[in-house]
């Protein structure tokens, strides 16, 4: 499904009003919570549903705030694509956020 289809659906329901952005953000938090529960339960169907719901809600929220979600993703990826850092316990820590007091010897270095 494309953003245009999502936004058409939202527009038909009157959801694209910028004044509704705070409520849409609350909806996003609800959907992320549902995703968390689905992940803990290892429920594949609910994970798929929650990921889709998060994407739809985020697409609508971006529009309400005056942004194109694809453009936001493009800009964010261009910012991070060449970052250096380490992979620690499944999380990427960018170089400038590394704690000099922390031991990273068992972490994978990303260059």
List the helices and strands and how they pair.
Blueprint: H1 3-12, H2 21-41, H3 44-64, H4 69-80, E1 85-88, E2 91-94, E3 108-110
Antiparallel strand pairs: 1-2, 1-3
Helix pairs in contact: 1-3, 2-3
Give a brief description:
With 111 residues, the chain is mainly alpha-helical.
Protein architecture, described:
The protein has about 110 residues and is mostly helical. The protein folds into two domains: about 5-80, MazG-like (Helix Hairpins, Orthogonal Bundle); about 80-110, no CATH class. About 60% of the residues lie in helices and about 10% in strands. It has four helices and three strands, in the order ααααβββ. It has helices at about 5-10, 20-40, 45-65, 70-80; strands at about 85-90, 90-95, 110. It has a three-stranded antiparallel beta sheet, with no helix packed on it. α1 (about 5-10) packs across α3 and α2 runs antiparallel to α3. The longest helix has 21 residues, at about 20-40. The chain is extended and about 55 Å long. The model has no long low-confidence stretch (mean pLDDT about 95).
